[in-house]
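Um, can you check?
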Amino acid sequence: MFKLYDRQLTSRLLLGTARYPSPSIMAEAVRASGAAMVTVSLRREAGGERAGQGFWSLVRSLDVQVLPNTAGCHTVKEAVTTAHMARELFDTPWIKLEVIGEDDTLQPDVIGLVEAARVLVPEGFRVLPYCTEDLVVADRLVAAGCEVLMPWGAPIGSGRGLNNPFGLRALRAHFAQVTLIVDAGIGTPSHAAAAMELGFDGVLINSAVAQARQPALMARAFAQAVQAGHAAFLAGPIPARDMATPSTPLIGKAFQA
């Protein structure tokens, strides 16, 4: 089991619902992944649009926890307003908080992120901030009341994997008691496994599944990779070495005088 705030989830893989070829393919991928939580953008789900209502009905039929996000927000005011609208529309205090500061990389505005979290947490929101691996920013977000952090692996949709393994490893070590989910930039199941092997609690995938030739098959592959990476972390991988270490012991080996 996997705990986020007070919710027990059956999977450490979270899945996004954007950019799929069709809603039915998205639903098939969610089912194949076994994900227990999906992210949904409020901007897609305008309450008065029939298409939006139909999509929301489809998501509800999947019987998964919904995590609305503030994707596309560039200011604190915009993110806070979007979070309030999401709580009303989706009837949930959960929010994936995004405040974008740079358009080319979609890097989070970490100052705005902390400010928005300081507003939303006292209002009862369960905030999951999309952040960088910066230790100081992470400390500010935790101090603001965030019990879960979602550091990026690489820019959103880039598929580059883990750009800064050192920084992510340091983040995991410094915040051992905080739930950490790698979000953004993961392109292949091996990237997800690598994140889990570093000790992260979960991963969030969207583009890598949605834009695959076979989204459902890719979703299943990511689910297996997340499970394998988590098991490997628990098992305790051997440390990397610069020199070879023989796997066959020399004691008892026959030799000629």
Observations:
- Residues 6 and 81 are 24 Å apart (CA to CA).
